[in-house]
User: What shape does this take?
Amino acid sequence: MPPQHQDAIAARSSDDSSLVLAEGEEESSTQQRGRSSFLFSTAQQMDPNLPPPSRSMRRESFIVQFAKTKGPPQITIIMMLVAIGLGSTIGVVPAVMSDRFARLNHGYTGIESCAALSVDERPAACFAGSSDAQNAAAEASLVMNVLTFLTSSLIGSLSDEHGRKAILTIGLFISMLSPLSLYVIQLVPTMNPWWYYGIHITTGFVNWVAVALSSLNDVLPQKFRAPGLGLFLAGFMLGFSLAPIFSIFLSHLHLALTSFIMAFFGFLCTIFIVPETLPPHVAAEARRRRSELYSNNNNEATAISFPQRVQNNIKWLIVRPIRELSILNRNTFFRLISLLAFFSGMVSSGDQLLLVYYLEEQLDFTNKDVATMFLIIGIMGMMAQAIVLKPLNEWIGERLVVALCFFIGAVDNTMYGIATNKGTIFAAVALSAFTGMAFPTISAIKSNNVDASEQGRIQGALYSLQALASGVGPVTLRYVSSITKDSPLGPGSMFVFAGGLYLCAVAAALALPKELANSRRDHDEDVAGEEDYMPLYEASSLVEGVSNNEDSVRTNSSYGST
Assistant: This one.
């Protein structure tokens, strides 16, 4: 620690000198040992003479602290609203688009929509329309995720430098456009389905979910990040479990309108109730680092000609998104994390995009069956994220949690592929809820291994990689389905193939170094440190105002760098 920082903290704590003298050497040593399980320092680690957290803070449970923290509860509510909107239309899009393609491209003129007919009653035009809709969805997903791949890491870095709230607001505004276009396309019978897919592609420009995860990491301590992100996703699952209720009573047209209203309400909540979670000194440090990097790449702009400076600026704008992704190649540990994220992203996107089409076409799933399926996913997912994840994480550690989740994913995808009845599918989707615990755990592992001023960048980079996988995944599964359609499994073979990809992710998870992947190194350290932690955001607040000079700003925002 720089001498200036030591002097500043000493001056700040001079009023509490009597309390400092009362602290014994043994207690200070115990506190330091307990906190050693964290990768980032707290204010007490920087200066052992500072008083420890109050006893009331020590005894607060994870749920209580999550609820009291500014940011996570509000963002979780927004996630729930968006999930209700998404869940309301997830069965509508395949039905509406398949019918529209059948009418426009294959001459279907029936009074009933294709989705209203049983599998035995559907004409060939309906099956051809469904195939067109699946191909369109896969192609749109590829384009959207390529955009996300190119922009997500950059968006994350911009949120590191300028705050999370503005990016969240822009992202949620764009997300409102998809349900609105779905509503309009049902009002205009001759409107081409590609209007919907084209508007949906624009959501790839701003990935607001990655920024929301960065907001949580701004204010949650390390050991609570995995369960905290899990609770955040539990809000999503809660919304998903509520969404099927609307599909029972509302038509496809009104479900699209409901989805838009929910997204619009989430947009308003972001503007008026979500606080800015990024500490100003962390943003200042991120801007300083970016400015230094820009200056180095601009070759000392004052020493070159104006045309050369313009050329360098344009080159910087083009190269920066790729440069931001370089964090994923920082070391072998990050490369392993990226590998398992890629495999899991391929499968999860394929499941999300193609499963409903497959079930409606092969197992005659109705709107009621789809609603039941997502009700199961919502309830089981909420239980997994809010109840199971935290104790499981404490018991076996993040590394084995990820491996276990991916193994369950291999099992449930194989069940999709071999299923011959609806009961098997319902059992498989119940299992798939536990696969979802891998995502917040991977995000927490990444977050725990970077500096506070890089939280947005790492979440954005991880999302960029998953976006690439999400674009490749559905196209790959559709290709597997096309070349194996005459096999005994038929189209279901693509899900068996997806299960094999999950097994590759299991191998990558087991190869992760335990000392880096797990936030708690062993039980003894955890017991020693359980009562003495202080959240990163609170530790930052103790030192934020110590000094206004540049050295202090740099120290405050980078004391946890690895």
Summary: Residues 298 and 312 are 6 Å apart (CA to CA).
